Structure formats: C-alpha cells, structure tokens
Amino acid sequence: MPVHATRPVFVFSSADVGTGPPATVGGSRLFGLSAAQFQSTPAALSIRLFAARRLTKVSDMGTASITTNTITRTTGNFITDGWLVGDSVGLRNTANVAAVDNAQITAVSATTLTFAANTFTAETPPANAEFWRLHLLSTSTLASGAGSTAGTAALDLFTDAKPFMDATPNRALAVGPGSGYFAALLSAVSSGGYVDITPLAGDY
After folding, report:
1. Dist CA 162 CA 7 (whole Å)
2. Where are the domains of the chain?
3. Between the CA of residue 137 and those of 7, 18, 56, what are the distances in Å?
C-alpha cells in the first residue's frame, strides 16, 4: 500500500476453481493478514479492512472505459452482474489507486455504473482489470513503527475484523473463488513510505 493508497486496494483473493497449479484448486484458507508500516517518520495510522466479492471482469465488458464519474461497457450487463445503487466498488489492476477514497455507485444501468463527480481518473482499464463489491469489516489502528521498529509487532488485521480468529491451531477462514479482501488507509503515509500487508494462507 504506497503513499497514495487511501483508496481501497486489493490484498488477497482465492485462486479460481480449476486454476493452478494444481488444477484442482477450489479455494483458499486464510489464517491471517499481517500489516506493517515502513516510513522515514513512523506515525500511527488508521487502516480499514473490506470483505470483497468480484462481480465484473473487464474481459467480459467488450469495450470498457473509466471516466471521472462512470464505468461503462459495450457488452454484458452490470445489473445482471449484481451491482446496486449504494454499493462501494474496489478496482483491481487499474491505475486508479490515487483517486478518491469511497467509490460509491449512485446509479446503475445495463452498460453504465455512475458515481459522484471526480471519483476516478479517466483511463481505459487493461484486460485483466476487475471490479469488486466491498463491505467494510473493521477500522484498526496500526501502531507507529508496527512491524518495522524493534519491540513493535505487526498488526493482525483479523484481530478487530474477526475476533474469533485466535491462535487456535488449524483455525482459518475459507475464501471461495471470486472472494477476497481489500484494505485502505484513512490518511496517506509519508513520501516514499508504504504499508505492507502479508497474507498467511493456503489453497485447497
């Protein structure tokens, strides 16, 4: 999560069924998400964790476009994909990580998702871009120097989001195909700094 990552950014998803290796992957088990910060001048940060569901791939959209307040397509249907007014949208594999924090849908049609003015920077998204529905799980405090300063441990983001995720052996979240997690900072880190989020997971 670099300096501009106040927009939710992708941190983890399951492998799709049938992908591999091995070709029999059916999902993932997620045991934890460890967050650490690296800044020249460490400071406490607020970090949000979102559960996410992939609803639309650019590869299914024909000609796809992102303007400052819309996402459009020429084939497929946003309504049948499941998008609703009020949904928060996370973008994966696009250049829009520097845009505003909360991309919330204000109108939905078959070929257009509409947002508030200046939600995005205009771009033609690449063929591997994806659009995910986000659900806020938690807001946590990442201590100054967490994971990078002696004596200050990294933060397990599941501590607040999933209180039942304790140290019990073999306890994990099942993450099915098309499901995942995004994270966002409430304020930007210092220039050249970043927050590192590391998943502990395995496929099944």
Report:
1. 22
2. 9-203
3. 15, 29, 22
